[in-house]
Design brief:
This protein is mostly helical and about 250 residues long. The protein has 10 helices and 3 strands, in the order αβααββααααααα.
Length: about 250
């Protein structure tokens, strides 16, 4: 099947209903964020539309918006693809994440109530169980919810929007964590440190724990990046760790 370039989609965008466009955009954004697609994977509009249960036009419009955000790239003669990060690019993204997410985490501390703290503890337990069972999908979903709950509590929508946009850069790599056995024993340690720091209402310690969480996971994800910034190439399906999208079209990605 011939792939359709994102740049071919512009003329079709106004023909779609805004509500359906937005639902399609949010769903695809979330799929990218939780690793539904792999780095370098080629996306065909008709295949994506079939998976979404939507028409071709809202999918074209959504892909155009995602390309504008940098979540997708349009490669000549290859169609729409997920970008491949080089290690240099990944290191930059990781530094940005540590700055933005550390700030959001620290700023959230005075605003979290007991119900939210209990939810964070439950999510940390869910992540621990998922790691024991090597359940990538369950771990990544609980991890996403943990971070989103924490950052949303800061009450800084512009900061949160920046964080979610940066997440699109690394989402396709996320399920690669489960390709590294050494990662499974340490991925939840920083979350437990976050909870301990929250009990003390120590914002600086919460920031340090989140930065450590991102850094430790980043060292494993970095191994899946290319050594240079070579062009995108199709990813092998076998590399996927079994992560599938959620049903909600409004879920935000990690």
């Amino acid at each position: 099947m011939k792939s359709v370039s994102v740049t071919d989609a512009a003329a079709s965008a106004p023909a779609c209903g805004a509500t359906q466009q937005d639902a399609c955009f949010q769903r695809l954004r979330q799929w990218i964020g939780v690793g539904r697609f792999l780095p370098g994977e080629r996306l065909k509009i008709r295949d994506v539309a079939r998976d979404l249960g939507m028409g071709v036009m809202p999918v074209r419009a959504a892909l155009q918006r995602l390309a504008a955000e940098g979540a997708l790239v349009n490669v000549p003669n290859a169609g729409v693809m997920l970008p491949l990060l080089s290690r240099i690019e990944f290191d930059e993204v990781l530094q940005v994440r540590m700055l933005l997410e550390g700030e959001a985490a620290e700023r959230s501390v005075p605003h979290l109530d007991e119900q939210q703290l209990a939810r964070l503890r439950a999510l940390a337990q869910s992540m621990e169980q998922a790691l024991r069972e090597r359940a990538a999908k369950a771990y990544l979903e609980a991890n996403e919810d943990f971070h989103l709950l924490l950052y949303r509590a800061a009450g800084l929508p512009t900061l949160l929007a920046l964080i979610e946009t940066v997440w699109l850069k690394v989402g396709p790599l996320s399920n690669h964590l489960f390709l590294h056995a050494d990662a499974l024993g340490c991925l939840n340690q920083a979350h437990n440190d976050v909870l301990l720091a929250l009990q003390r209402r120590d914002g600086a310690a919460v920031r340090r724990a989140i930065e450590r969480d991102l850094f430790v996971a980043g060292q494993f994800l970095r191994l899946s990046c290319s050594a240079d910034a070579a062009g995108a190439r199709p990813a092998r399906k076998s590399a996927r760790a079994g992560v599938k999208p959620r049903d909600s079209a409004t879920d935000k990605p990690r």
